[in-house]
Backbone:
């Protein structure tokens, strides 16, 4: 096998579950899961305004940010 690399994608999306703890869980897992020197971590920016109420659109809470 050729030299393989792993892309580690951190997307701590919490709005779908309307639970800010999901954000922190994603961050925690990124620290716990071992990475090799070949792995690259890419972070997808996610809003952290946990106190702001998520709007309901078409019956889905937080639809706009999702």
Residues:
């Amino acid at each position: 096998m050729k030299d393989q690399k792993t892309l580690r994608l951190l997307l701590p999306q919490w709005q779908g579950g309307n639970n800010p703890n999901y954000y922190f869980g994603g961050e925690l897992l990124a620290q716990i899961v071992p990475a090799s020197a070949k792995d690259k971590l890419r972070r997808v920016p996610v809003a952290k305004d946990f106190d702001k109420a998520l709007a309901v659109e078409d019956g889905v809470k937080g639809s706009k940010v999702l």
